[in-house]
Amino acid sequence: MSQALLAGLARTTRPHSMVRRFLALDAVVTGANGLAYVAASGPLGALLGVDATLLLELGLFLTLFAAAVGALATRPQPPALAVKLVVDANVLWAVLSLVALVAWLEPTTAGALWTPVQAATVAGFAVLQWTALRAVSR
Q1: How far is Cα 97 from Cα 15, in angstroms, rounded to an integer?
Q2: Which member of 28, 96, 113, 138 has the lowest number of beta carbons within 10 Å of its beta carbon?
Q3: pTM for this one?
């Protein structure tokens, strides 16, 4: 990804600000997703074809993860190791989402569409965060 594209997406040319903004965006989107899973695990579970208890547990995890990522985003210079852990967690989430889709979930059509979309979104966060982190080290 070019530096110009990255700066355009982050709306800044300062590498530390890029990292912080991509972490913050991740925290907001993940937090909203987690809270939706917690607040409406029954209806969303029925819509997606996923067990409501599983969705509730995933929602709690996502909400806590989002809070941690949000706290990291408030740091003036987020530690590289912590950002790498967020990137790794995002990659793992994206991969496990797709594995779950083919290995053990029996989703509805909406769930079969939603799962790869959210996996791609999370993978996109990982790419943006990793690329911005690399720009910091240059």
Answers
A1: 30
A2: 138
A3: 0.89
